[in-house]
Amino acid sequence: MKVVILAGGFGTRISEESQFKPKPMIEIGGKPILWHIMKWYSKFGHNEFIICCGYKQQVIKNYFANYYMYNSDMTFDFSANGKVTVHSDHT
């Protein structure tokens, strides 16, 4: 079953926190509110999400497009080898 999450509000009542990111991406305990909502649903077996984005949607898209990178300890080697090493996964 797919879960539809409405994540398009301006966040005007919490404008000091939502000046640079949309309300669903405000962090609680180091993770965005949206992540917590999705984690809660996944505990009940719902793992397919449709996120209806609006205001500053690119922040939401970038976070989930790069989720693995954001939630892992990584080392980037900028020498000729040019490798990326993932040390641990914090998901």
In words, what does this structure look like?
GO terms for molecular function: glucose-1-phosphate cytidylyltransferase activity. It holds the Pfam family NTP_transferase. Keywords: Transferase. InterPro entries: G1P_cyt_trans-like, NTP_transferase_dom, Nucleotide-diphossugar_trans. It comes from Phocaeicola vulgatus str. 3975 RP4. The structure is a single chain. The chain has 91 residues and is an alpha+beta fold. It has one domain. Helices cover 25% and strands 30% of the residues. The protein is built from 3 helices and 6 strands, in the order βββαβααββ. It has a two-stranded parallel sheet. Strands 2-3 form a two-stranded antiparallel sheet. A hairpin with a 7-residue loop joins strand 5 and strand 6. The longest helix has 10 residues. The radius of gyration is 16 Å and the shape is globular. The two termini are 22 Å apart. The mean pLDDT is 81.
